[in-house]
Protein 1
Amino acid sequence: MQVPGAKLSYSNITFLDKNPIKRWLQRKRLISAIKILGTSDCAKRICDFGAGNGELCKGLAEKFPAAKIICYEPTPSLLLEARENLREFGERIEFCSDAKDLENQTFDIILCLEVFEHLPKIETISALKIISEILHNEGKFVIGVPVEVGIPAVYKGLFRMIRRYGAFDANIKNVFLALIGYPPVDRPVSEISPGLSFYFEHMGFNHKILAHEFLKYFKLVGVSTSPFGKPISFLMPEINYLLINTTKVKDI
């Protein structure tokens, strides 16, 4: 994301970060998210919900060459990055900046990666409701979020301390609280663009609490971690959930 007042683009702090391990992890999380979908050869319409710079759409276009892909990104600076990043795909990928434009559409697959850890509760519920309404009957929904509690909180905290010691997500107290499963709940909230409330720091996010919310709308059918799975999944920095729409599907 584009942090207010910063010169670094989303690409610069993710896929083009100066740290080669971080760059590799960012690539792997996209691969893992697409992999959990399995074979979905019949997918005709796919939405990357909160697409950032659109990098995931490249993998989706390769995996599903016959599908129409919608790149939904409500933040103007990020949408601009996505348009530039995806120029080569032409009409294969459509761009959308307003969730209202999705209301009359339905999708076979929706992916939402590295988004929910940034959303306050009201915005989280709103996004889940929108997705439940536009997801096709028996369609697939992938949520990918970082693991910010337990052991991953420690090595992530140390990495952040090296870069910005003492910040909200890079101080010993908050890292310790995240380690024992009680990350700070009083998270600094800002706006990523006018009217869009946003947590810029991952610190304070708990994927287990998110699960309580999305299980009200969807049925969980699969879980994977990135970059590796069992038997060391508890050490992994990223988790993907594969869901289906329980508001439309009674029996699986």
Protein 2
Amino acid sequence: MKQTGQELVRFGVAMEARLIEQLDALAEQRGSTRSELLRDLARAEVVRGLVSKRVPAVAALTIVYDHHVRELTERLNAIQHELEDQVRSTMHVHLDRDHCLEVIVMRGRSDVLKAASDRLLGTRGVTHGGVEIIAEAALTAPTEAHEHEHGRPHAHPAKRSREKP
């Protein structure tokens, strides 16, 4: 049995019956299988382990803030400018009279991205937020090269198969 050029290995896992029921319900809710859900959980934990090791990474930081807080916009901009080219893109959305949402996409060393995210999230006036940091090593999935009508060949990660648990 093959998946994206890598051999799948079957192994046994012992879990409490109630936990398996909850796992199966989650897999069904996601339209997935028990095996795929366990693979996704394992991948996520591997990425979390990589990110803690000061590796090249990408991050998406989302913050919601009260734009009436004095000098908040300037402080948020100053932190982003200190990061220089590590900030790759931002999106600013006005939510209502008082609140804005920003999504900040960054690329750099994982510990630097984490520290910058913590600073931005901890800035007075930021009321909500979160960050997802992904180690670039996790992005090296096997690819399938192909062309589109525009004629430029490129690749996307190979599609994952969905087998029964």
Protein 3
Amino acid sequence: MRTRGYGAVVPAVPALRTSRLALMALTTDDLTAILRGERDRSAFTWPEWWPDDADRHHVEVWHERSTRLSDQDGWGPRALVESVAPSMAGHAGFHLPPRPLVEALSDPSFHGHATPAAGGVVELGYTIFPAARHRGYAAEAVDALVNWAFATGEASTVLATVAEANEASHAVLRRVGGFRVIGTCRDDTATVEVVYRRDGSS
């Protein structure tokens, strides 16, 4: 966050806005507040139960990356904040700033087709909290992120990995369109994940 005139606080990275959501880049300060439960330090609220055991590690990783890459917050996680109220419905964003395809697909468990990319490559992820599911928020957020990534001119290709059994997440990418399966990999628990790719011309 930074201050502009009369002490007004504005985000360092402008939010991406859809018809129902504001995708707000999570800065180091935001992530510190989330880890400490300091809700009065944030422009939005989040569920009392979050971050849970599954997500706390992710938030800690995001915090470390934001501290190290503070000028790249736009390429990190974003809070999906509902327009009707400043409450967080989930999170979505990119794992790292644009990088060469050979780095993005460097996971030794990857098996598939690594057709060269014209420019930088990013990988996105998304999670919708249980109370906000079945409203189309994930597809809305993914569509906005993909369009923004290509519009920057820094990324030509977007990847996404989805657990083989996670039909809801597969459906999101089909709904957004333009993604194709290029192979599989395994996560840290050896779960098989399907690797999707979308290029800027898609």
